[in-house]
Amino acid sequence: MTASDVLNLLVRYVGNDRFMAAYYKLAYWWTLRTGITAFDYGYAPYSELVAGDQKAQEPYQMELYNQAALFLDRNLHGSRVLEISCGLGGGFDFIVRHYRIGFGIVLDYTLGAVTHARTRFGLAGVQGDGRVLPFADRSFDTVINIEASHIYFGDDFLAELARILAPGGQVVIADWRWGTIVDIETALRADFARFGLRIVRFREITQNVIAACEADTPRREAFLTKLPWPIRDLARQWIGTTGAGDYRSFVTHRAGYFLLGAVPQCFRSSSAMGREELAITHLIRMGPGTARRDAGWVVAACGKPGHVIFGPDMELAAGPYALRVRVEGYGFQEDSRARLNLDVYDGDRIIALRTIYRTQVGFAELEIEFEVSPKIGRRRYEFRLWSPGAISCRVTRLALFRCEPECRDEV
C-alpha cells in the first residue's frame, strides 16, 4: 500500500475538511524546522527586484507576490492591507519590505503558520477562517489572496471580501481552477458580480507557473526528503514539483492559473437631478417569530431565526440602485450563526447580498448595490432582512436610491 492509498483511506474515514485541517497543522509544524518561508507554485522569470533581495530564499515564490502587487489598480503605499491565508508569512514580508504599505495584517487558518509569521517576520497576525473574517466592515484598502481561494471559494468568502473592503478598495487573487481559462474567467466574473464586486483585470499566467515549477523542482524535491514519509506524496502536490498532478494539469490545459484584480461596484447618486429616493412601504411578509411595522420601524425575527421581506412600491426600471438599511438595538443570543443578512431577490434568485456579524455597538448600517438588467425589463424586486440565528432588532431606516454609474470601463 502506497502513501497515497493510506491518505485516501484517512480522508474517507475522517472527512476531507477534518483531514486537511490536521494535515496542514502537521505540515506547518514540520516545515518550521526547515527555514522555508513560502509554498506557492511561483512565477518565472523572477524580476531584478527579487534577484536583488538577499532575504528572498524562495525567489520564484516571492515573484508571484511581486506580480500580485504590480497587478493592483493602485499603489500600495500607505494603504491598509490584509493577506488572507498567509502561510508562513514570507510572501507578505516581501510586500511589507518593498511596497511601503501603511498597515498590514495576515490571517491563516493554522495557528502554527500565524505564530511563525509573527515571530520570524514581526507581522501582525490572527488565526481565522477566510469565510468568517474577524474584522469590521470596510477595514481594508487592499486584500491579497495567494493560491488559497480554491480551497474555500464560495458565497461566504466573496461576501466577506465585499464586507471588509473600504470604498475604493481592491482585491488581488493569484490562484488556479479546473477548466479552460475562458471558462474560469467567465465563471469568476459572474460569481464576483453577485456580491457587488467587479473584476477589472484578469490575466492568465499558467505558462509562468509551469516554468517556475520546472526551474524550482530540484529545490522542492530536496525539501521533500526532510518530511516524514506518510505526508511526502501529498506535500509533493502542495509545493508543485514536476511530479505533481497539478503541474501535469497545467501542462495538459486541464487547469489554468490566473491573476485577477477586483473592486467594489462603483455607484454615485445623480448629481444633476439630486439624490432620488424611492419609497419602500410595502411589507410583503414575515418569517418565523414576530414582526410588525409600527411608527416607521420593523421589529424582525425576535427570539428565533426569522426574516422580514419588504420591497418598493413600484417596478424598477433598468439601471443601478443602492439600498440602505439602518438597524438599531439589535442583539444576538449566544449562537454560532449570529449574523444579519440583507439580500436582493429577483424572483427566487439572489442578485446581491450583504452580511454583518455581531458588533459591539448598538446599531449597524448595511448598504447594498445592485443593478437591474435592461434584458429583464421592469419588475418588482424583494429585499430580505434575515438571520439564521436568534436575533432581535428594529429597522429605523429603509432607503432605496436610483443611482448612476460612476466607473464602468473595464481596465
Provide a short characterization of the protein structure:
This protein is of the alpha+beta class and 411 residues long.
Question: What do these coordinates show?
Answer:
With 411 residues, the chain is α+β, with helices and mostly antiparallel strands. The chain folds into 2 domains: 3-262, Vaccinia Virus protein VP39 (Rossmann fold, 3-Layer(aba) Sandwich), CATH 3.40.50; 269-405, Galactose-binding domain-like (Jelly Rolls, Sandwich), CATH 2.60.120. It has helices at residues 3-14, 16-31, 48-51, 59-71, 90-99, 111-121, 149-152, 155-164, 181-193, 206-224, 232-239, 245-251, and strands at residues 80-84, 103-108, 125-127, 140-146, 165-178, 197-204, 255-264, 267-269, 276-278, 282-286, 292-294, 297-311, 319-332, 339-346, 349-357, 363-372, 382-405. The strands form 2 sheets. Strands 8, 9, 10, 11, 12, 13, 14, 15, 16 and 17 form a 10-stranded antiparallel beta sheet that branches. A 7-stranded mixed beta sheet has the order 3-2-1-4-5-7-6, with helices on both faces.
